TrEMBL record:
Subcellular location per the Swiss-Prot or TrEMBL entry: Nucleus, Nuclear pore complex
Family of the protein in this entry: Belongs to the GLE1 family.
Upper taxonomic lineage: Eukaryota, Fungi, Dikarya, Basidiomycota, Agaricomycotina
Organism in which the protein naturally occurs: Hebeloma cylindrosporum
A Gene Ontology molecular function term of the record: phospholipid binding
Protein name: mRNA export factor GLE1
Region (Disordered): 1-60, 240-274
Keyword presence, Iron-sulfur: no
Length: 595
């Protein structure tokens, strides 16, 4: 950084003429070099004086009568002699040199002082500028610190506000959770009290039965005691008076005959009442289409055998009919596979399937082809259920909607579909334990035939039959579609009795009343499936009776039935399914709709 040095106020000395050379005849350095070079040359005056002395001798030879070689001025050797004039000239020359080396130039001194003053003034201005710059920087730093402090205060206030909002939101969430917990706890206590009341009623009933048994035993004991007393009295009377004994014996025989006659009359009366009650129940079952489980199994099994032995056998034996049937099957399977949970797609695919089975235009299929096509259609729906519903339970609803439309439209399809359900699920459709004989009274030929009738198939993951878990998942997928069909309400006419909503109650009533079914590991999984599909709607339909049914199921999966036997047994599959049943029961009691 260069500062301009002002000139001193002191007057500059005036020379008569400009001095272009030094006293010794050399060009002055101060006249030809820059300001910075002049400052450096001031420190080299001693060197320049020496050079000036040497050069002045050559340039001003007219002023001094000296020899041209300066070495001649040195002390002479002893053998050299000079004259007094020479000695005097030498001394004058030396005196002149000394005088010239101590020469004082006022102008150069003024320039030197001027430079010092300029540098001093520049340093003072520089110090003042630096101080002002430092003050400016300090003011900027303080302003920046104040700005940062204000920003920090604002951010701190904003953070406090956000924390307050979060704390308030957390308190609201905790309050909602506590309210929900209290509500759930209240519901659980209500349910527990209901279960306790049910247990108390059962205990009261058991105590009442025990009291009746004791009273009956007491009555028998008293009768035996009376007989012994009468016999003793009779013996005493016989010993006392034979005639009186004979009369007493005759009287007792008459009394016994009379009692036997009265007992026979009571037995006949009870038998008559039983027959009348059985007749009334039969009429009620016929009116409500409510048959016993073995009758339902017999009807479905008979339909299955009829379909296999008549139309299917006939179609397979005829090449032309078999080819037509194969074409229909190849049209059915892709349609079922294209089904999605879209009302438009469901309606479209249903119409297309009906058109395939029962063409609206052109000739209708022969009866054998029609029955075979219905059988293939039912099988395709069930196979789709086994594949898709096992992986995603929500795919059961559209499949059930298509099946419902076909059941409501196609003639004889309900019976065929029910038969195919029995074939794939065994007795779980009814539900019933598979009997030991076929519908024609013929015992099963071997164990493999009974296993096949029970719906157990070959394993898809390896050799042999499917495991309990595979069988349970497959059957529960089919039953989920079946329960969804029961859930749909018909708009025009009722469906086949096997596909009406009361079958849901019948299914659970039969399941809970047969301990052989409850012992199977598949039972809790199917119970969970039914509760998951229709459990909440069933409460709206059957009300308190359904709650009693749920309490019975809860008892079966927790404390157990029949000496502590739990539903599903002690298998791993049964334990996992019981857990799902408990979750479904809790959702139903809390009014939570299954996803």
């Amino acid at each position: 950084m260069r500062f301009s040095a002002p000139r001193s106020v002191s007057p500059s000395p005036v020379r008569g003429r400009p001095r272009n050379s030094s006293t010794f005849g050399l060009q002055s350095d101060s006249d030809s070099e820059e300001y910075e070079s002049e400052l450096e040359s001031s420190f080299d005056d001693s060197d320049d004086d020496a050079v000036s002395i040497a050069s002045s001798t050559s340039s001003n030879s007219s002023s001094f009568l000296l020899v041209s070689d300066i070495n001649k001025l040195s002390l002479r050797p002893r053998h050299i002699t000079r004259t007094s004039l020479e000695e005097r000239q030498i001394e004058d020359t030396i005196a002149a040199i000394r005088l010239r080396t101590r020469h004082y130039d006022p102008y150069e001194e003024w320039e030197k002082e001027t430079r010092k003053d300029s540098f001093k003034t520049a340093r003072k201005d520089f110090s003042t500028a630096q101080s002002q710059l430092h003050d400016a920087h300090e003011r900027l730093r303080r302003a920046d610190e104040e700005k940062r402090a204000a920003a920090h205060t604002a951010e701190l206030a904003e953070v406090k506000t956000v924390l307050d909002r979060m704390r308030q939101h957390q308190q609201e969430v905790e309050k909602k959770l506590m309210d929900a917990l209290k509500h759930r706890e209240k519901q659980l206590w209500n349910w527990i009290e209901a279960a306790i009341k049910l247990e108390e009623d059962k205990a009261t009933k058991r105590l009442e039965e025990e009291r009746k048994v004791r009273e009956e035993e007491e009555r028998k004991r008293k009768e035996a005691e009376l007989k012994r007393r009468l016999a003793e009295e009779k013996r005493i009377q016989e010993e006392a008076a034979k005639k009186k004994a004979e009369e007493e014996k005759k009287r007792q025989e008459e009394e016994a005959e009379r009692q036997e006659k009265e007992a026979e009359e009571r037995r006949q009366k009870l038998e008559k009442e039983r027959r009348e009650q059985e007749k009334e129940l039969g009429e009620l079952r016929e009116l409500l289409n409510f048959a016993p489980p073995d009758e339902d199994w017999r009807v479905a099994r008979t339909d299955l055998l009829n379909v296999k032995s008549n139309p299917l056998k006939f179609v397979k034996s005829n090449k032309q009919l078999k080819a037509t049937w194969g074409t229909i099957r190849r049209q059915i399977v892709p349609k079922i596979g294209q089904l999605t949970n879209d009302p438009a797609a469901i309606s479209r695919i249903s119409r297309q399937l009906i058109e395939i089975i029962r063409p609206a235009q052109g000739p209708q299929h022969e009866p054998a082809i029609y029955f075979a096509a219905c059988s293939s259609l039912a099988k395709a729906i069930l196979l789709q259920a086994e594949t898709e519903v096992t992986a995603e339970k929500r795919s059961a609803a559209p499949l059930a909607q298509v099946a419902f439309t076909l059941l409501d439209t196609l003639e004889h399809f309900p019976s065929i579909f029910c038969a195919k359900l029995l074939q794939r699920c065994g007795g779980w459709l009814i539900p019933i334990v598979v009997p030991g004989k076929d519908v024609d009274g013929r015992p099963w030929t071997d164990k493999d035939e009974r296993i096949k009738v029970s719906g157990i198939r070959k394993s898809t993951s390896g050799e042999g039959l499917e495991t309990t878990e595979e069988y349970s998942n497959r059957v529960s997928a089919i039953m989920r579609v079946y329960f969804h069909i029961l859930k749909i309400r018909p708009t025009e006419k009722p469906l086949h009795p096997m596909f009406q909503l009361p079958r849901f109650w019948t299914w659970f009533a039969r399941m809970t009343s047969d301990t052989r079914l409850l012992q199977d590991p598949v039972a809790p999984q199917l119970i969970y499936t039914g509760l998951d599909v229709l459990g909440l709607e069933a409460m709206d339909i059957w009300g308190q009776q359904w709650i009693k049914m749920l309490a019975l199921i809860h008892e079966g999966v927790t404390t157990g039935y029949d000496n502590g036997n739990v539903i599903g047994g002690l298998t791993t599959e049964g334990a996992a399914a019981r857990t799902r049943v408990l979750v479904a029961l809790e959702n139903i009691m809390n009014g939570v709709q299954s996803s």
